[in-house]
């Protein structure tokens, strides 16, 4: 996902909120998807690891031990983070590497005036 | 909830992330609770309405129409937002009033480097 849903939609939110109107269904769905992806302690841990990585990315092979889960389980969680636009995935040889997508979460939070 | 879990825990996160370690179970649980509460389009809309209210608060009686749901259903959604520390509830006579809890969402996002 090259353009995170929350990022492109953020500009539409502030004016409607100021008027006290509800945001539209499509934007509400996109924002909920971002937050829902982080509504799980394991995915919070994975996101924290990737967002805090000194290399700017992490191999799936280095994500399994810190969360104590198998690689297929970690890959499932990572798929949800990728689909929400929170991380980007790159296959390099045998391993998948993940890096944080800048601004997706920040833009989603700002869309709710946070 | 007078002290949002994400706010008090934020200071613990940055150092651990820099080292590439996982955040602890308790913090991961607290953060996931905040995000999970917003992992639903209706609650995103309700949060947007309250966060964008010109009065700084909204009566439950004014939240039903914008989301097209009954008051019991809206109250159920609001209960989850209150439990996550995202809004504060005050009963005033017949109606409940909700105001956004400053910084809960912003702190949760920052805890993940967003």
From TrEMBL, chains A, B:
Record keyword Cell cycle present: no
Ranges of residues in domain HTH arsR-type: 23-114
InterPro entries: ArsR-like_HTH, ArsR_HTH, HTH_ArsR_DNA-bd_dom, HTH_MetalResp_TranReg, WH-like_DNA-bd_sf, WH_DNA-bd_sf
Gene3D superfamilies recorded: Winged helix-like DNA-binding domain superfamily/Winged helix DNA-binding domain
Pfam families: HTH_5
Keywords assigned by UniProt, alphabetized: DNA-binding, Transcription, Transcription regulation
Keyword DNA-binding part of the UniProt annotation: yes
GO MF annotations, alphabetized: DNA binding; DNA-binding transcription factor activity
PROSITE patterns: HTH_ARSR_1, HTH_ARSR_2
PANTHER family: ARSENICAL RESISTANCE OPERON REPRESSOR, TRANSCRIPTIONAL REGULATOR, ARSR FAMILY
Protein name listed in UniProt: ArsR family transcriptional regulator
Organism: Naumannella cuiyingiana
């Amino acid at each position: 996902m090259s353009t995170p849903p929350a990022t492109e939609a953020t500009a539409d939110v502030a004016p409607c909120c100021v008027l006290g109107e509800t945001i539209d269904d499509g934007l509400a769905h996109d924002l909920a998807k971002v937050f829902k992806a982080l509504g799980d302690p394991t995915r919070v841990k994975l996101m924290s690891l990737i967002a805090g990585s000194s290399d700017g990315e992490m191999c799936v092979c280095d994500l399994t031990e810190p969360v104590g889960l198998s690689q297929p389980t970690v890959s499932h969680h990572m798929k949800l983070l990728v689909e929400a636009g929170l991380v980007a995935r790159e296959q390099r040889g045998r391993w998948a590497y993940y890096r944080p997508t800048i601004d997706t979460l920040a833009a989603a939070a700002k869309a709710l005036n946070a």
